[in-house]
Amino acid sequence: MAARSASNSPSNSASPRTSRQNASRAAHRADVLVIGWGLGGLVAAAEAAAAGKTVVIVDQEPRTNLGGQAFWSFGGLFFIDSPEQRRMGIRDSIELARQDWFDTAGFDRDDDLWPRRWAEAYLDFAHGEKRAWLREKGVGFFPVVGWAERGGYTATGPGNSVPRFHITWGTGPGLVAPFQAAVEQAEAEGRLTILPRHRVTALTTADGTVTGAAGDVLAASDAERGAPSSREVVGEFEITAAATVVLSGGIGGNHDLVRWQWPARLGTPPEHMITGVPAYVDGSMQPVTAAAGARLINGDRMWHYVEGIQNWDPIWPGHGIRILPGPSSIWLDATGARLPVPLFPGFDTLGTLAHLRQTGHDHSWFVLSQKIVEKEFTLSGSEQNPDLTGKDLPLLVRSRLGKGAAGPVQAFLDHGADFVVRRTLDELIDGMRALPGGDALDGARVRREVEARDREMDNDFTKDAQVAMLRSARAYRGDKLIRTAAPHRILDPAAGPLIAVKLHVLTRKSLGGIETDLSGRALGADGSPVPGLYAAGEAAGFGGGGVHGYRALEGTFVGGCLFSGRVAGRAAAAAV
Ligand SMILES: Cc1cc2nc3c(=O)[nH]c(=O)nc-3n(C[C@H](O)[C@H](O)[C@H](O)COP(=O)(O)OP(=O)(O)OC[C@H]3O[C@@H](n4cnc5c(N)ncnc54)[C@H](O)[C@@H]3O)c2cc1C
């Protein structure tokens, strides 16, 4: 299936050109130009600078945003057969991981030629050099390995057969830190220039070779990290470079673009979505890169979450937070019907999204107990995990193993617009029905689902696949310790109060992007490299134009930026 062409895409947030009349045109020159200072951009720039090249990094945002999305990320990383896994009793192998990756990706298109090759290369990296390379840079990992995307189908279905989600000690900021330090060191030595508030609107070319970029200088902004900044134009710029690397991220902050590329296999796009990325993840470089001759592929492959909640304390517009759910909550659709097997929390993100899009409603519900929320709710995002982000061991022990919900989770229970906390099921159902869209809920259906599930707890036997899975999950030390509550009746007053959470679709990652070869060279319509042009990170589908295929195993996005940014930075440096 052909992806839609970026050149016809809906316009990206148009720039008001208020001060243009007096605009001056600034000119810069470098060996390597890096567009975007997210994790991918920092890695590529650090590599090019380490190779002795002069580097310019441009980004449309104020400098407070260095690190891009990765700063906000949980810093979850996919490793294969790591020491952390082995210490937790997990026997992983490259063969098992390859099976999981390819069965999850479901590559099935001619356009998957380079994505498949990137997948093989990335698996080798995640099994080999990746961990040692990061350790060398001072990056550490939380010892308990998480089990994301558990699948629940057969051995040839999607999902992780074993836990592989390694949390960076220090979360996203801990991952960004060494690359930011390397870039700033090169800047201090005069070999690298960082140009904030430079918004690229064109790649410049000469005889089919990309020679740099041009665009608008935006007005200085004191917007805080993550908050939207103005698009007022105060000047123009042009940068000449022997190699240009596009690392401009995905499209998750641009709902028009998400809707436009939304694939029919996921039903119709929701009318209402919340936003899991800052507004600068706007896809503005897509038409610009296509206009320079690069091919964008797999735009219809995207990774949005189904456990989004509205942030009570938002930083960016429509700011939503993803619950990284443990497996115990009962998942109901908007009418109160339980989701089918194996669509349990944390099992199959896109399978659940596709199912929910058939229900005729944009939202769904978790129903759970206080006991479950305390053990199982983790919120994705560095700012939602002050213990891990701040490397604060006492806080970590208190919040993950102590009594009560972790502070950030409790804040949502107290202030979150999507949370209902009540003593009895009748009160809970009334509370759910009182939220916007809650009138779709059939209270009798909710009662039947919850009571029937609870009856399954009286026995060691069960016909309920989720209950059986809960029991088996606790055989894994990591789950038993911090991720899976001891199975209990949801309606047991001792486990209460009862909690319902209204869940929204939350936009996040673009799985497709600029097609690249294994050197990160952007490829044109005829399959040959566009001279002078490279791409990596989310803008390039984390490698090749879509290393994940249709679905991801998680922890593979920041990892994909590390790997593809490194490849492109090294290749660009070697070519000039
Ligand atoms: C809350 C959150 C949690 C996450 N958790 C995880 C996790 O645990 N594990 C994981 O693997 N992934 C996670 N991710 C995803 C991951 O962080 C991102 O996919 C990744 O960081 C993208 O990096 P990037 O360098 O490709 O792009 P970005 O970080 O998006 O950076 C792109 C930059 O390009 C700039 N730009 C765009 N267009 C232009 C233009 N025209 N001119 C100039 N500049 C431009 C933007 O301003 C931006 O600064 C998470 C993301 C979020 C938001």
TrEMBL record:
InterPro entries: FAD-dep_OxRdtase_2_FAD-bd, FAD/NAD-bd_sf, KsdD_DH, Succ_DH/fumarate_Rdtase_cat_sf. Residues 1-24 are annotated as: Disordered. Residues 1-17 have a biased composition (Low complexity). One of its GO terms (molecular function) is steroid dehydrogenase activity, acting on the CH-CH group of donors. Pfam families: FAD_binding_2 (PF00890). It comes from the Bacteria. Residues 31-558 form the FAD-dependent oxidoreductase 2 FAD-binding domain. Keywords: Flavoprotein, Oxidoreductase. NCBIfam families: PRK12834.1. PANTHER family: 3-KETOSTEROID-DELTA-1-DEHYDROGENASE (PTHR43260), KSDD-LIKE STEROID DEHYDROGENASE RV0785 (PTHR43260:SF1). This is FAD-dependent oxidoreductase 2 FAD-binding domain-containing protein. It comes from Microbacterium lacticum.
